TrEMBL record:
It comes from Desmophyllum pertusum. Belongs to the ABC transporter superfamily. ABCC family. Conjugate transporter (TC 3.A.1.208) subfamily. GO terms for cellular component: membrane. This is ABC transmembrane type-1 domain-containing protein. Keywords: ATP-binding, Membrane, Nucleotide-binding, Repeat, Transmembrane, Transmembrane helix, Transport. The keyword DNA damage does not apply. It is found in: Membrane. The chain crosses the membrane at residues 82-109, 129-153, 197-218, 224-245. Residues 90-291 form the ABC transmembrane type-1 domain.
């Protein structure tokens, strides 16, 4: 090219045979670009060398974040979406309603039997129907628990894979500013809670909530006056639950954060074990490990 127009095109040998004056290329432009590039690199180096404190702050180990306050419904939504899609969620809600209805039907049938005469109450057909309703409700309850457990396991699996993918794609600066114990804590402690504790607690909570709704709904149809004493009791129950959850939630978060220094101290000790033994600092590292464990155990006692 010359002054923005194409003189010829092809490989180097073809250009030589075509008689194009390659020496006439504007070398000033190439030289200008090269000088400007070198100048920008020198300026960047001067800026970086002029602010060593900023470079040092980038490498500082940041404190572990701790969420304060209630867990938003958006967080629950993300957790459930990690285990099932929207269509499956609608099907699960419908199935839960059917199961809860099946748990109420035996009580309704038993109430119907008690309103009959003594001779009609001893009929075999009615007793078989009652037994079938109880057996069906039992089977549906087991199916509900299994379905919910599968959703919880899928959520834990997908969240673990997402976190692992993010760790593998993280830059080196992330590992310089986050101790290895903090990363291990996320993969061991938090994922362990998702795998072991949360499914059992979540299934139990869903069953208790649905049981309370059914226990209040059916008698309310038969005797609406039950709503009057049930309403203040429900309000008191909700207030006590919120007060307990506020304390328990913060303690659980503190326990999760204070577990990271224990793992960090243990992993750092294993990495520098030869140096620690060479300088005879075993006792100091053991005291530091015991101190971190004591702080963590004190919080666990209150959970």
């Amino acid at each position: 090219m010359k002054e923005g127009s194409i003189l010829a095109k092809g490989d180097f040998s073809l250009l030589l045979r075509s008689g194009v004056d390659l020496n006439g290329i504007d070398k000033h432009a190439v030289r200008t670009v090269t000088v400007q590039t070198k100048k920008s690199l020198i300026e960047d180096r001067v800026v970086n060398e002029g602010n060593p404190e900023e470079e040092f702050k980038r490498l500082e180990i940041a404190e572990e974040d701790r969420v304060i306050g209630y867990i938003s419904w958006k967080m629950y939504s993300h957790y459930m979406q990690a285990g099932m899609c929207t269509i499956v969620a609608v099907a699960m809600v419908t199935f839960f309603a059917i199961v809860q209805g099946s748990l109420v039907v035996p009580d309704w049938w038993l109430l119907r039997l008690t309103s009959r005469t003594h001779d009609r109450q001893n009929q075999t057909a009615d007793l078989c129907i009652y037994g079938s309703l109880v057996g069906g409700a039992f089977i549906l309850s087991i199916m509900r628990a299994i379905a919910l457990l599968n959703v919880m396991i899928n959520s834990s699996k997908h969240l673990h894979n997402s976190m692992l993918s993010a760790i593998l794609k993280a830059p080196v600066l992330f590992f310089d500013t986050n101790p290895i114990g903090r990363i291990l804590n996320r993969f061991s402690g938090d994922i362990g809670i998702l795998d072991e504790l949360l499914p059992d607690v979540f299934v139990g909570a869903v069953q208790i909530v649905l049981f309370c709704i059914g226990a209040v709904t059916l008698p309310s149809f038969l005797n609406p006056w039950i709503i009057l004493p049930a309403t203040p009791l429900m309000i008191i129950f909700v207030l006590i639950g919120r007060y307990y959850m506020k304390t328990s939630r913060d303690l659980r978060r503190l326990e999760g954060i204070n577990r990271s220094p224990v793992l960090s101290q243990f992993s750092d000790t294993l990495v520098g074990l030869v140096t620690i033994r060479a300088y005879k600092r075993e006792h100091a590292f053991l005291e530091a490990l015991y101190r971190f464990e004591f702080i963590n155990c004190v919080i666990v006692v209150f959970l």
